[in-house]
Amino acid sequence: MATAEASERYLSRLLGECGQQPVDADADVIHIQLPPWYDAELFRRGQKFHRKYIASVYIGMLMGLLSILAVPSILNVLMCTGKSETPLKAYRRYVKTIYHAVSWFYNDLQPGSKAWESIEMVRKKHLNARKYCEKAKQITIMQRDMAVTQFGFMGYMILRSKMIGIHINDEKELEGPVHFWRVIGYVMGIKDEINLCTGSVAETKERLKIVLENILRPSLEKPIPNFEPMTTALINGLWHFTRELDKDTCIFVAKRLAGCKGYEFWHSDFKQTPTKEDLEQMQYYKLNWFQRFLVCYFISISDFQMRFKIFRAYFNFGIRKREWINYYFPYTAILIFGIKNAYVRIFGSQKKVAHSE
């Protein structure tokens, strides 16, 4: 059981010297090893969970990655590397991110596997980006940044599962995905003291709440100026992967998931009974009619339709179909970016993103 004292200790480490340490400090070569507490069966249960709820997992990751763009230290690194500030660059960067995540969901994590190769590539890119940013802008990639990025991939999936369409009857089902992301965090270079995921679902949730309440929500409520153009590039880039995306709609959904004031939808979203003034300040009414429709469409899917296996299977199939189309025939990206830029690969000449189950 997570305690207030344990939460305070984690917050102190996250915001203190431990969280400010550079990732892979003084490292020139990356050596990946599985953690001593690695449980192969629990890791596979985590992979199975992601495949079972893949449509909701995608939603959670998209909203999480959008949310972390509001964090100044992370945004500054992204701007320094100069690989995601235009729709084309964002398209290639974030489609690669999708392909990396898919390789983790569908392959064994062992030397020689596609998942292992993917982890090695990402670790090397992080190392090179850190060195470049330290030299060019005197900024670095901190352990805290990695923990916040870890939240971007899995935070809403664990903390806001029902709000993104994951309706489970027993929290024990979360043990698999929590262990999965604990392992991924470890092999990505996150120290156990900073890793958001632990051996306990309850303790993991407490750590996620700490990041949400102390870093993400304040950053989203008062985003820095570069948040808007970087978010626009993200959404306009990934629009070629899924055409239901709209920037203001996605920001609304992300801020609702983060619990930002004014971004409530249901009365139950409010922390207490809403006043007339609270209702008048709801940002939903500032959206245009099409954006309101998209918000209602998303909420109808996550809150209602995804409760039923037939709808979950339908939306999961839709996601896998988009993966297939984007990999073999990304027609809208071809029209806008050209053939050479439209085709994205992470494994060189490999013809598949991931092996079959």
Outline:
With 357 residues, this protein is an all-alpha fold. It has one domain. The protein has 17 helices and no strands.
How would you sum up this structure, described in words?
This protein is mainly alpha-helical. It has one domain (30-342). It has 17 helices and no strands. Mean pLDDT is 92; it is low at 349-357.
Describe the secondary structure blueprint for this structure:
Elements (H helix, E strand, L loop, with lengths): L3 H12 L1 H4 L19 H13 L1 H15 L3 H10 L5 H20 L7 H24 L5 H17 L15 H13 L13 H21 L5 H12 L8 H12 L17 H5 L8 H15 L5 H20 L2 H7 L1 H4 L15
Organism: Hermetia illucens
InterPro entries: MPAB/Lcp_cat_dom
GO molecular function, one term: oxidoreductase activity
| Separation of the first and last Cα atoms | 35 Å
Instruction: Count structural domains.
Output: 1
Number of helices: 17
Total number of strands: 0
Runs with pLDDT <50, length 5+? 349-357
Radius of gyration: 20 Å
